[in-house]
Write a structure and sequence with these properties.
2 copies of one chain form a homodimer. Chain A has about 525 residues and is α/β, with parallel strands linked by helices. Helices cover about 40% and strands about 10% of the residues of chain A. Chains A and B meet through helix 1, helix 2, strand 12, helix 9 and helix 10 of A and helix 1, helix 2, strand 12, helix 9 and helix 10 of B.
């Protein structure tokens, strides 16, 4: 019982409903990680996983489907069996080679003020990338269009808490498959001035991303390594395989000094052992193999240790996300990445199909896992729904709120004479109130976190305004943000060069003169 | 982009919808806290808050409205000003006296297997207590009845993840106010065999709780100190006051060797300084004053350091819950309680009025705060809605899922030869699968967390079953749990003695012969 809650509830004079003006949000700022990470395994246990994964690479090895990748491994001293395409790496090679990767690097953006530090005491949040479908409250899950993709990118640009676009939120299914990456890149570069993710599947697409990024940065593609702009997600094909498109993407990106984020999808019970320790042994082996390959391509190329281990739903065999095992896997992965001194990537994921309580609690679990694991890059940090098959407009707003709250928590409170507030305590006295004290008045405006989505109004006001749940409010917020969107400026010559590139490449791909982007 | 999610999604053969049988949940078990707490302030900063709060008690002091409490303070050596009722405590007195309280104790229950350890490496979860209103999906927020209160208690009994009832989930407004605590206690004692919380407001009600608990435990009230059964929430009246009913409850409970949970409601910006450090100075001063008073009543009486600091919504002056500041306050409070070697209480709270995404994310924030702060007691751990004015049936189920997930996360994964899974990795081979490996088959049934509320089915199945959101599913679950409820056995003589006590006391209160409980 806690009856004082009822008895002593302060209320100010009434006020109007919220958000009649422009959407208020926290300012752009790359968050720091000021607290210790949460480590759930001992150093000995981490060492056991590390050593087991080295054993896997030595004895079982990786099956590498692309010939150039096998040649690069072989040139570095790996044992390559061409008939089976299996590459075995001895532990000395792995340990020496992985050390070539930097522990921190700078990721540039078209707007220099949107550059990001990757690694060290910094984290950043990336929007969802890769789903097949779009979803909003009115239409439910549906095939997304290029116009909707542009709307999604405008929201990603508008939300200050998102530091990076995630590689296209969903497929623009009204555009031809062979060239839609070009339209997507044009939108990423002109509707936004933040950092963005390319498509890492295949050499040709990777080069298109690199060319367009180079145009936007005003440099030659061959010089892009001086100002890395890409963290490119590379998924191994678990268990223990690397396919041709992923290998090509990895090689192309690493050759240009762009960061590859080696992320095994080690789904415990399906594509990895059913035990968390076993799944992490396999994740670690696959991640190390990819990291070694990147260093074989270009010693010193930036890499990120990617972790995506989760468990299946044992009733259906389908992946589950934001589970307790997922959180543990993220935290242990952070320990492994720190053991190697490498930047670490985790994610904000859920199995839920609606923007309901499940979506929120699974995302919170994943997010607390990522942040307490000291993830330097939180991929899919906003917008992911339905096990990653869907990108949701309302979910984007929900996640922006979760991320904003996390950034506020990541700012430790001041403890000094002024904040200890002894004068205010004396001024308020026994049973008094603090509303009117000088201490309060001086700090009133910015003392506390101001929510984007949460409704903190009392029950009667909330009911009288229609008993709107968080998903309904999120729907209103993204529409208002879209209405308030302002396109960032771009040098007309750069814009023209991008349009020319897209038109030329479309011509090559489709065998016609192509055409500029809508 | 993470296209492997789409390309390599394993699916088993179809299966029927879930939950056609009885509700499955994790077994009863008091969770341990195996990981390090998350400490967000330095030891020096904690010391600064500690010293400032000792200064507050020395110079400003507590206004104590009850005469016996002032006499107890005075007898211990405090400086008491009878005209202003202000009690000033020098730091030597505070520091010596608080050390008399134990750092860990056992809390007994009618069912000996439901006893709880309070403090040390243990935590436990208590159901919501104290709200005015009940809420469910069909009726919305409404005045609760005794029949509904009994239903709520049956659910608390049924949910294994709840270790303690919270002191009555809402007011049974169909019963007379003066005696409804007797009916509530009868329900707590007969519909449940778990530990439960009493009403701590006033000496008479406190004694009724003690008498009835003693009957159920088969001991005299004067002997109840040998087997403590109560953690009784005592709220100070912030700032720096202790009122008559709370002082009476504190004294009565401590006199009987029951644990008082001293919990200042230090609402930053209203009843406490607008700075978090200042609000915590005040919380700490008030908590220490209550802890000292309990030790003056009975040296060695168990106490719990309660923390409830949160911030106001600066637009309305009303309390906000589950905020970033709330999480920080919980984590710092845990540091303070550890500095004193005292058991620590935190809570799971939200401002949301609906069981929507906001309810889930604010509760998750509060819960991660509590658990990473090493709360030994998580009060209001399930069922709290709308800033504590409402207890919700669907929220109870949502929170049970959050708590179950947390308990699964609190069980560290095994790291040994069997779990490292090298044979399984070799058996599956490159690009193989793990479904059929011996390693998987041996662990299949219990490898992963099994959800209570989450729907992990694919989109088509979820849509075909009605696109039910988590709140709708929670509604079905609590109704099924209620249908499956089995009343725990009770000695008929004990039941009769409880009924006799209630009847006698109702007669005294209402001046008639009273009557047994419905």
């Amino acid at each position: 019982m806690e009856r004082s809650l009822r008895a002593r509830r302060p209320q100010r004079e009434g006020r109007g409903p919220r958000r009649t003006g422009a959407i208020r949000q926290r300012a752009w700022r790359q968050p720091r990680l000021p607290y210790r990470p949460l480590e759930i395994l001992s150093a000995d246990q981490i060492e056991a996983i590390h050593l087991a994964s080295l054993g896997v690479l030595e004895t079982i090895g990786m099956k590498v489907l692309q010939a150039e990748a096998r040649r690069l491994f072989e040139a570095a001293g790996a044992d390559v069996d061409e008939s089976s395409m299996v590459v075995r790496l001895d532990r000395g090679l792995v340990e020496e080679t992985r050390k070539l990767a930097p522990s921190q690097f700078t990721l540039h953006a078209r707007n220099p003020e949107r550059a990001l530090e990757v690694g060290g005491a910094f984290t950043f949040f990336s929007a969802v990338g890769g789903p097949a479908f779009a979803c909003d409250l009115e239409r439910g899950r549906h095939a997304g269009s290029y116009a909707e993709l542009c709307d999604f990118l405008k929201l990603v640009q508008s939300l200050n808490v998102l530091h990076q676009e995630g590689g296209g939120p969903f497929e623009p299914l009204d555009l031809p498959e062979a060239s839609r990456h070009l339209d997507t890149h044009y939108a990423q570069l002109t509707l936004m001035d933040k950092n963005w993710q390319p498509w890492g599947l295949g050499a040709e697409r990777a080069r298109d991303g690199l060319e367009m990024a180079a145009i936007a940065m005003g440099v030659a593609r061959e010089e892009l390594w001086r100002t890395p702009v890409f963290t490119c997600i590379i998924n191994t094909n678990s268990p223990l395989m690397l396919d041709v498109p992923m290998a090509e993407g990895l090689i192309e990106m690493a050759r240009h000094g762009q960061a590859v984020v080696i992320t095994p999808f080690t789904l415990a019970g399906a594509m990895a052992p059913v035990t968390l320790a076993g799944a992490l042994v396999q994740q670690n082996a696959e991640a190390l193999a990819g990291i070694v390959l990147a260093q074989c391509v270009r010693p010193g190329a930036p890499v990120v240790y990617g972790a995506f281990t989760t468990n299946v739903d044992m009733r259906s065999g389908a992946p589950a996300f934001g589970t307790p095992e997922y959180v543990q896997a993220a935290q242990i992965s952070g320990q492994l990445a720190r053991r190697y001194g490498l930047p670490f990537r985790s994610s904000n994921v859920t199995t839920a199909h609606a923007v309901d309580a499940q979506a929120a609690y699974e995302s919170e679990m994943a997010l607390w896992g990522a942040i307490t694991a000291h993830a330097h890059m939180v991929n899919h940090a906003a917008g992911w729904l339905g096990g990653g098959l869907t990108a949701g407009f309302e979910k984007l707003i929900l996640d922006a709120e979760l991320l904003q709250m996390m950034t506020a928590w990541l700012e430790p409170p001041a403890v000094d004479e002024a904040s200890l507030g002894l004068e205010a305590i004396a001024e308020a006295g026994h049973g008094g109130h603090f509303f009117g004290t000088a201490h309060t008045l001086a700090r009133y405006e910015s003392a506390f976190y101001e929510p984007l989505l949460s409704d903190w109004d009392n029950y009667d006001n909330w009911r009288d305004r229609g008993s709107m749940d968080a998903a309904t409010r999120a729907n209103r917020i993204w529409k208002q943000l879209l209405a308030e969107y302002e396109q960032p400026a771009i040098d007309p010559a750069v814009d023209e060069a991008l349009r020319d590139y897209v038109a030329r490449r479309k011509g090559e791909i489709h065998g016609s003169s192509g055409g500029a982007t809508a």
